[in-house]
């Protein structure tokens, strides 16, 4: 209120000429009180009313709707970026021998390759799981998959892998599959259920027969290391004991390349009693250009909606209309954000650089080979095919 009053006075005295000049300037006694009032109404009170009845509610409404955006935008003020990774240059070309590739990285070559275990917690992403396993198949000793009948947010879910297991006959001889019952604690932080499932995955890995110095890939299903990356790491000696993989970050399909900053996936040289399955930062070393992270890369609209609800960040679904299928379809085609959020970055430069929808990409070069060989079946993942099927198949 203090602000308003002083601003009003200021207005009247400074802009004397144009708006209430004829009134404020006059010292004539006759119409003094009337014109004063009119002046106040016109100059001060009109502004005040506009302020009170339009701007203030708009502000409150804006904060209500965009509060999360405002706090994300101001994030660089209250949070400093994490320590940068130590990026390891990644060398690869089909025709270069493994010996030379290892040497380029400063590593030696082994006489025989390490065994490789790929372990994932599965929710419902069947298409991406197929691409992942087909990509990695030539170099994986054992695929380990754990699924729960609970989402991380504590919603019951069917055992989707169990009922589709016949579609994965190609891995059957190398598959260790496990299930775990959800704890269904209401209102609990989703990260607790997630941690609980990861501990169970450690047990399943032991059952699968993992031993010291075997390679273990720790990543979500949709974080797919490229085949040649895993081949390099299994053949080269002296690779770091833990190595993060820098993956190209895609959203909805390979049409929307966000950046190349996905870093959560990691490869470990297994150490009994020490290695624990984790999905957070575990070391500074990261290998460049090591694969793809395709988030929300689903065939059906219903899967998007399921994931939005099952996601560890369910608090992001602030309004129920976010889950409206028509809205979801529009957002996908635009390359916009499903949760209507700002980019999660640590500097204003990066936030501003990423505002607005993700630009369309017209490149389908260096994608998982199974995708291109079955382009018709996985059309929805390729550029130019944003329309999704409505009901779940
Ligand atoms: C790569 O190797 C293949 C066979 O090993 C050979 O036929 C081909 O010419 C090579 N390509 C290049 C570009 O060197
Ligand atoms: C989840 O699985 C556990 C263990 O198999 C079972 O006891 C429980 O009834 C299941 N719950 C639901 C909701 O399916």
TrEMBL record:
One of its GO terms (cellular component) is membrane. It holds the Pfam family Glyco_transf_17. InterPro entries: Glyco_trans_17. It comes from the Eukaryota. GO terms for molecular function: beta-1,4-mannosylglycoprotein 4-beta-N-acetylglucosaminyltransferase activity. The chain crosses the membrane at residues 46-65. One of its GO terms (biological process) is N-acetylglucosamine metabolic process. This is Beta-1,4-mannosyl-glycoprotein 4-beta-N-acetylglucosaminyltransferase. The lineage of its organism: Eukaryota, Viridiplantae, Streptophyta, Embryophyta, Tracheophyta.
């Amino acid at each position: 209120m203090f602000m308003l009053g002083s601003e009003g006075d200021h207005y009247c005295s400074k802009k004397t000429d144009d708006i209430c000049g004829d009134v404020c300037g006059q010292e004539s006694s006759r119409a003094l009180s009337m014109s004063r009032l009119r002046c106040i109404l016109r100059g001060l009170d009109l502004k005040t009313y506009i302020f009170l009845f339009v701007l203030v509610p708009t502000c409150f409404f804006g904060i209500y709707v965009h509060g999360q955006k405002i706090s994300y935008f101001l994030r660089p003020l209250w949070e400093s970026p994490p320590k940068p990774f130590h990026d390891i240059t990644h060398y690869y070309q089909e025709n270069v021998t493994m010996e030379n590739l290892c040497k380029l990285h400063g590593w030696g070559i082994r006489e025989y390759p390490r065994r490789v275990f790929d372990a994932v917690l599965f929710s419902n992403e069947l298409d991406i799981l197929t691409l992942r396993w087909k990509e990695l198949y030539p170099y994986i000793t054992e695929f380990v998959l754990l699924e729960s009948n609970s989402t991380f947010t504590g919603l019951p879910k069917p055992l989707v892998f169990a009922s589709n297991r016949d579609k994965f006959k190609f891995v059957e001889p190398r598959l260790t599959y496990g299930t775990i019952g959800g704890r269904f604690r209401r209102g609990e932080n989703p990260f607790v259920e997630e941690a609980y499932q990861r501990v169970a995955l450690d047990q399943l890995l032991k059952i699968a027969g993992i031993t010291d110095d075997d390679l273990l890939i720790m990543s979500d299903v949709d974080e797919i290391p490229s085949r040649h990356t895993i081949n390099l790491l299994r053949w080269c000696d002296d690779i770091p004991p833990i190595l993060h993989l820098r993956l190209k970050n895609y959203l909805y399909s390979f049409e929307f390349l966000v950046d190349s900053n996905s870093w959560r996936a990691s490869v470990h040289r297994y150490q009994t009693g020490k290695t624990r399955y984790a999905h957070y930062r575990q070391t500074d070393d990261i290998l460049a250009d090591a694969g793809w992270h395709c988030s929300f890369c689903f065939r059906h609209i219903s899967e998007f909606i399921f994931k939005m609800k099952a996601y560890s960040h369910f608090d992001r679904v602030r309004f129920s209309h976010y889950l409206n299928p028509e809205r979801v379809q529009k957002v996908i085609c635009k390359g916009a954000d499903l949760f209507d959020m700002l980019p999660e970055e640590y500097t204003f430069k990066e936030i501003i650089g990423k505002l607005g929808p993700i630009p369309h990409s017209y490149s389908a070069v260096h994608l998982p080979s199974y995708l291109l060989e079955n382009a018709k079946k996985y059309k929805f993942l390729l550029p130019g095919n944003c329309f999704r099927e409505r009901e779940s198949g």
